[in-house]
Specification:
By secondary structure, the chain is an alpha+beta fold. Helices cover 19% and strands 35% of the residues.
Length: 307
């Protein structure tokens, strides 16, 4: 009898486990803003627009059809591919309207457009020679697309793959030894004569204005400089130390040699076309001091090839 009772109880237990024990009338409350998502898209396959807001930074490259005409050959030892660092800032997305601005090569330009089927179509106003339209997508944390100029300019078509970066002013950041500063607008020619193995050789060497390693040692944003520290510096050193102040504030450089140099700094993000109101008191005093000595400092030249 006991055995039969045990088997009956076990049968009831198994049936109970397989039955639906959920409360069909129960409501689960999930407050708005606490939902867990693990992709850029909601279940409706609509983009999470808040993810797109911010600064997207990277190289603004000549597109394939413009590539061969874009290079600048300064000398055998220095070639510029005409890439510029661009900051494509998405500031606001309302419904399908996108508002933002671009910062590149000393220009800060507003843009406005649409987001439809996960593709951005945005346009700059058109009242600047270098305005154009951007078409891009954002996938896997990368903003990728193309830009076409409205007017006929040197490089009317560009492409870009950008990553999202946040900007904050840091007075303690130092220059990295990523590329050498070369001012190809300031140079001199030198005749070299040499006799080797009873043969006479002669050639012309081009020397370009450059800098010394002092630019990696002096910080004019966090330290008040003295006359003694700057009076024997070369013109190029003074120039770069001063402009590094501007780079720390996110200034977008119009000067090409400066732009190439600072674009190569991993921490540098072009943010503004005007930073006059951003300087600290230390920076203001240092800028005045550097400018005073820069005016009469001796030029420094470096060799980059044979002309």
């Amino acid at each position: 009898m006991i055995r039969i009772s045990f088997l009956f109880f076990l049968l009831i237990l198994i049936i109970g486990c397989k039955s639906d024990i959920k409360n069909r009338d129960a409501n689960v409350l999930i407050e708005e803003g606490t939902e867990v998502t693990d992709s850029l898209y909601h279940d409706s396959n609509q983009p999470r627009k808040d993810i797109f807001i911010g600064n997207w930074v990277g190289d603004f490259e000549a597109d394939k059809e413009d590539l061969y005409d874009s290079y600048v050959y300064v000398d055998e030892g220095f070639i510029w591919n005409r890439n510029n660092k661009i900051n494509l800032s998405i500031d606001e997305i309302t419904d399908s309207t996108v508002i933002g601005h671009s910062v590149v090569a000393g220009n800060k330009r507003p843009f406005k457009g649409t987001l439809k089927d996960s593709i951005f179509h945005v346009k700059e106003p058109g009242d600047n020679k270098y305005d154009g339209k951007f078409i891009f997508t954002i996938e896997n944390d990368t903003l990728k697309g193309k830009w076409n100029a409205y007017k006929i300019i040197e490089i009317p078509h560009r492409k870009y793959e950008l990553v999202k970066k946040s900007f904050s002013y840091n007075p303690d950041i130092m220059l990295e030894k990523s590329t050498q500063y070369v001012n190809w607008n300031r140079f001199e020619k030198e005749n070299i004569k040499e006799i080797e193995d009873d043969e006479f050789g002669e050639w012309i060497v081009t020397k370009f204005a450059s800098t010394t390693d002092k630019i990696y040692e002096i910080n004019a944003s966090n330290t008040l400089l003295t006359k003694k520290e700057v009076e024997n510096l070369k013109k190029g050193d003074l120039f770069i130390i001063r402009n590094t102040i501007y780079a720390r504030h996110g200034y977008s450089f119009k000067n090409r040699p400066l732009r190439i140099f600072f674009d190569a700094q991993s921490w540098y993000i072009p943010m503004h076309a005007n930073i006059q109101s951003d300087f600290t008191e230390i920076e203001k005093k240092n800028i005045q001091l550097l400018l005073r000595y820069e005016e009469n400092a001796e030029e420094y030249y470096d060799y980059f090839g044979r002309g």
